[in-house]
Design a protein that fits this description.
This protein has a four-stranded antiparallel sheet. The N and C termini lie far apart (40 Å). Helix 2 runs antiparallel to helix 4. The protein has 110 residues and is α+β, with helices and mostly antiparallel strands. It has a single domain, classed as Alpha-Beta Plaits. Helices cover 28% and strands 27% of the residues.
Length: 110
Amino acid sequence: MIFIVVKMTVRPERTKEWLTLVGDFTRATREEPGNLFFEWSTSVDNPNQFVLVEGFASREAGDAHVNSAHFKKAMDTMADAIATTPQIISTEAPGSGWSAMAELTPRHTS
């Protein structure tokens, strides 16, 4: 699996519209055959920073994503809204998605 995390700091005046701005890109990516997950979150420390967590089934699926028309269009659109160059971690990870965390489970109370 290709595991990617991207931190994107958005211009303050564009923060409220960010998820709408990337909506078509998000939907198109989630429909890609090799996409495992594509999830946006906001930073608890910086309200203008969004964190994107992505998973692709293989290197080929990741390459297809980066070469897609919706990726290229999104990069052009996002360039007008970001405040700084995004930070990225991209690595190959074992497995094919999320696993259950062994160290923590819900406590059942009565």
